[in-house]
Design goal:
five-stranded mixed β-sheet; three-stranded antiparallel β-sheet; 8 strands; alpha/beta; 137 residues; globular
Length: 137
């Protein structure tokens, strides 16, 4: 016999772990000067991947926040509810954070799915370990 409690728990977990949206709206109030092109690129990438959005779905709000405690190339992306926040200390961090945001979304023809969570980008996480090659003569 199947456990109805386990099935109900699984359904609730799956329905709460991500949300579907028709498009992304960007708040640029906290982003440093000169990064306006970044928002255009983000919107362009989403429009390429979601050709005909369903207007009945809600809008995901993307907010950029400056966080001087992060290293220059690091970024933290947090997705919760109908809001996504990209925190970085400088231009490179905002670029890397925007890329991490775009990669975290799941794209469909009628909309996009934003899995809730916290995603960190740091070049040190992706660096290849140093290896010394020795040649034998």
């Amino acid at each position: 016999m199947r456990n109805p409690f386990l099935l109900l728990t699984l359904i609730i977990f799956c329905s709460c772990s991500s949300s579907r949206f028709s498009r992304v709206e960007i708040d640029l109030s906290a982003i440093p000067e000169g990064n306006g092109i970044l928002s255009e690129l983000v919107l362009q990438r989403i429009e390429e991947r979601v050709p005909s959005p369903d207007s009945t779905l809600p809008v995901l709000k993307l907010i950029y926040e400056t966080d001087p405690t992060l290293a220059d190339e690091c970024a933290v992306v947090t997705i919760k509810g109908d809001k996504a926040v990209v925190r970085a200390s400088g231009k490179r961090g905002f670029v890397f954070g925007s890329g991490k945001f775009l990669r975290s979304l799941r794209y469909e023809e009628k909309g996009l799915e934003a899995p809730r969570g916290k995603y960190t980008f740091s070049p040190a996480l992706y660096a290849k370990p140093f290896s010394r090659r020795t040649s034998i003569m």
